[in-house]
Amino acid sequence: MTPELTSAAAPARRVSICNVPNALSVYRLAAAPAILYGLFSDHRLLFAWLIIINLATDALDGFIARHWHQETSLGARLDSLGDLTTDFLALLGLFVLEPSFMRSHLLAIGLLFAFYLASQVLSLLRFRRLVALHLLSSKLTNILLAVFFTTYFLVAYVPVLFYAVIVVGVLDGIEDIVVLCLLTEQRENVRGLYWVLQERKTMAVGSRARDR
Questions:
Q1: Residue 94 within any structural domain of the chain
Q2: How far apart are CA 3 and CA 62, in angstroms?
Q3: Domain containing 67 — which CATH number?
Q4: On the CB side of 87, how many CA atoms lie within 13 Å of its CA?
Q5: What is the pLDDT of residues 4-48, one digit of tens each?
Q6: Domain assignment of residue 134, given as a range
Q7: Is 100 a domain residue?
Q8: What's the pTM value of the predicted model, to 2 decimals?
Q9: CA 26 – CA 23 distance, rounded (Å)
Q10: C-alpha separations of 132 from 77, 78, 115, 129, 180 in Å
Q11: What Rg, from alpha-carbon coordinates, does the chain have?
């Protein structure tokens, strides 16, 4: 009998969708027009600060949701949409404001976004939804990206930060793809591959015990 991963049982306490994590996700989406304005009106610092705030709130909303037990299905979807919007705007900003930097690092950045898009396409094909796994590696990638944007636009280019974003981001994309292949149904707020494998192991042991 092949073990299958199923969704965790719904918590007994109902969580309101009107909470701080969801508000932060909505903010990230609402900030998109202001980010585009800063980008195309030559307000470089406005663009940079808004992108940095968006990336910082991505890490913050996940922590708040887990710490205060405010995780919801809607929140996971809003967070994923906010992530996708912010990442697209960050990439667009580098293309517009730093074309020479993009040309010099096109291969590395292309590799990073290739894995990112591959995981999104796989999720859409398998579950008809954007990725909402929210792995710990994804949060680490966004934290590093926030630090990189902060130093790049406000201080100076730090190569080690850039390559840290690329390496961690690619590993995150690979982990996303592997986890999506292991899951048999849409899951949200999955911590990482290790926990998915542990769950499969537990379910396999339970299945063998029931078959005896």
A1: yes
A2: 29
A3: 1.20.120
A4: 22
A5: 444 444 444 566 667 888 888 899 999 999 999 999 998 999 999
A6: 20-211
A7: yes
A8: 0.82
A9: 5
A10: 6, 9, 15, 8, 10
A11: 19
